[in-house]
């Protein structure tokens, strides 16, 4: 069960809200309870407005990512902020640069817009400062604090440390000079320093949110580094180096019962179906098991096979396999030499390679 609710779908991107965020809205309303019903409404609306700005920030990343050819799976909002889940990685450093900078830019634009609106309506900046200094459930305080929050969002995210957007901007700038791995390491090291700083600050202020943010920075930074290391490994391994010795091949006349029997005999996660020596499709273990529940044993396995299979040459590297599988949303890719199937590369082989690379790095 997913603990998030879908709330909007701009540009075909699913925007989801983690259920714990509803607690944050309630808590924020509660903090303003001394102002009565008006206060409760104000507290709730301020938090909703803040997270709308965070969603727009993530949408900024997402729209630019789509423009440079990446798919965006979803945007998730949770109590510590938001994430846009991109499928695949930016192809070029400048793609990463524009995707990363787009988020904070959105907040700069919002802050500027709010500034303009409040100056237009209140004639001078002093009124704005006064509205900020005096917490009251008024439109002026709402606008002033939302403007400040957007300024903070832009500034904090532009810190040149992973996993902040500024860290990505820095990596994109350093990548052509140092290479992707060293650039990632630099941004991740700065990220760790930032985390330590946040941790000290949080402890000093006695602020739990700042400490949690520090923990988030540590974990997200480590994940980013691991991903980069994995990609470097995948780039160095040819698909033929990891192919299972022989692919498990089913005949086009094979039934579901035959396929289930093949599953029992082989640990393979994907099976090929060949017709006259040519690849006709693939089925995963899961495909066979799902079909076996709803179809009869005598139905043909080829009817539930996937026919769109990414094709690799024997000289391709695993990173290419990962890219093609992601792009086609396929569970595997077929390695062919002159039309003859050499084997299937599945998520299993990629995952195993990740384990091997983690060992190599740790050992
Ligand atoms: Zn961002």
Tell me about this structure.
The longest helix has 32 residues, at 36-67. By secondary structure, the chain is of the alpha/beta class. The two termini are 37 Å apart. The model has no long low-confidence stretch (mean pLDDT 84). The protein has two domains: 4-236, no CATH class; 239-362, CBS-domain, CATH 3.10.580. The chain has helices at 20-31, 36-67, 93-122, 125-133, 139-157, 165-178, 180-205, 208-236, 239-242, 256-265, 285-294, 318-328, 347-362; strands at 4-8, 14-18, 71-78, 81-87, 249-250, 270-275, 278-284, 311-312, 332-337, 340-346. The chain is elongated, with a radius of gyration of 26 Å. The strands form three sheets. It has a four-stranded mixed beta sheet. It has a three-stranded mixed beta sheet with strand order 5-6-7. Bound molecules: zinc ion. Zinc ion (ZN) binds at residues 57, 61, 103, 157, 165. Residues 57, 61, 103, 157, 165 line the site of zinc ion.
